[in-house]
Amino acid sequence: MSVEWGVARRADLPLDVAVLSLSGVMMLAVGGILVPVSRGLLPVYENGLQGLLLFLVALHMMLLGKTPFGDPGRSRGLLLLGGGVAASGIVTCFVPDLLGAFPRVLLFLCFTAGGAALFLQMLLRRDRLPHWKGLGRVGRHLVRGCSLVYLSSIPLGIRILQNRLTGDPWIAVVALVYGGGVVYLSWVLLLVRRTYPNGGEAGPGPLQEDRILLLLVGLFMLLLGGLLTPVHLGLLPFSGSAQLGLLMVLFAVQMLAFGSTPLGAYTRSWPMILLGMLFALLGTFSCLVPETLVPFLTLLVGWLNIGGGVLGLRRLWLPLLRGPKIPRPVPPILLHLYATQTTLDLLSLLFGTSMLVARFLPGLAVGGILAANGGVLLYLVHVLVRLDRVFPPEGAAST
């Protein structure tokens, strides 16, 4: 299976394989971090791990139409349910112990009950084990990969429910086995996609995948801005480390899925995918190990937001300023799009500057900017959906 590494050459990696491989690499990182944590050599933020895992579960539900109990396909109902799981993961990351035992119970259901249910489905359904055995070498790999992931998820959920990350080396072992199984399964899935290119593709959903990611980023920003108000009033604790870590994971997903970065959209090449993996590793570490990467990630995220705002304004307005002297009529929906993108770029500039310049804005104003950013992103999704109706795309979002 050859891989071409040109910087401008598009990577042949289906969306589901990219998301699955990202999840596996992040779980391997979780297992690697939990090894020194279990020996008391590193501090750990339990809510950061729980929120990160819930966010990954939501990502699979919203982007791929896959739940811990089966693959019902993308639908409006599953999109809403995934948004609820994502919101619980985001809040769990940001505010320590606000949701109590709910995240651990939910993860127990997702990993332990879900893993057992999927393993039983594999054994009992005619379109699973009996069918896969008839696929030869590819089918054997598929059985091994699914069995490893399903069975290792059962003890992982139990360990998370017990919430014993320190002094328990077995949770690190289970996380490493699970992460390795997910990476192996992503390779098997890529093999299946290339052997049977017309099979197993996800059906169309209520939104294109890139719109779903915008929706997820908007939800993230809206919740972050809303929570910062009581945080700055001293009413709630807050984990800045986990907030930056989860934001880095969001950047990573956008880079792996579509080549979208905070600085703009680029070719979804293998170097871009590797850069996305690096962002995911940094984000995972920051979610689990408090405060260690905060100075570095604050600078990185701040400059990325400033650069993204400047480049976005340049890309948007420079062609308009250099356009024809005789103005042409512009459809109202495009005017809404230009206004929305301009607002987002300006908010990005303000947010990035506030991260780099101490006391540039009051804390309450920063929360308002982030909430406004989230609201404008959600409105952008609405505008893009309307734009698709006026100018229908030639095909679904590329994967």
UniProtKB/TrEMBL annotation:
Keyword Membrane assigned to the entry: answer is yes
Alphabetically list the UniProt keywords.
Membrane, Transmembrane, Transmembrane helix
* Membrane-crossing segments per the record: 12-35, 47-65, 77-95, 101-120, 170-192, 212-235, 241-258, 270-288, 294-313, 364-385
How is this protein named in the record? Uncharacterized protein
